[in-house]
Amino acid sequence: MTLLASNKRSDVRLTPQERRIAGLAYRGLSNKEIARKSNEGVVKLHLHRVYWKLGVQGRGGLSDALGCEDAEQISRTGGNI
User: Fold this and answer.
1) How many domains in the chain?
2) If DSSP states are collapsed to H, E and C, what string results for the chain?
3) 67, 70, 59: which is closest to 25 by C-alpha?
4) Chain-centre distance for alpha carbon 6
5) 36: CATH
6) Are β-strands 3-4 and 13-14 bridged in parallel, bridged antiparallel, or unpaired?
């Protein structure tokens, strides 16, 4: 299942990996902390794509772009919706 983000770009879909990483970033984990579960370069790449797809500048925009309920669910489930 891909997450349809509620933002300026209403047709944006995040891949499962992007959704997982966005959820961990939303929870406040640093790139290095997220990278412990993956590769740091991969984390940076996915976050760059997520920010671009959602039209946000960084972690601070994830909650609004994903929608509070979706962002909370992503953070609780580690990205598994």
Assistant:
1) 1
2) CCEECCCCCCCCEECHHHHHHHHHHHCCCCHHHHHCCCCHHHHHHHHHHHHHHHCCCCHHHHHHHHCHHHHHHHHHHCCCC
3) 59
4) 13
5) 1.10.10
6) antiparallel
The tens digit of pLDDT for each residue in 49-72 reads: 888 988 888 888 887 777 655 556
The pTM for the full model equals 0.55
* φ, ψ dihedrals at 51, nearest 5°: -60, -45
Place of tokens 């797809």: 53
pLDDT for position 36: 85
Q: Which residue range(s) make up the domain with 70?
A: 16-77
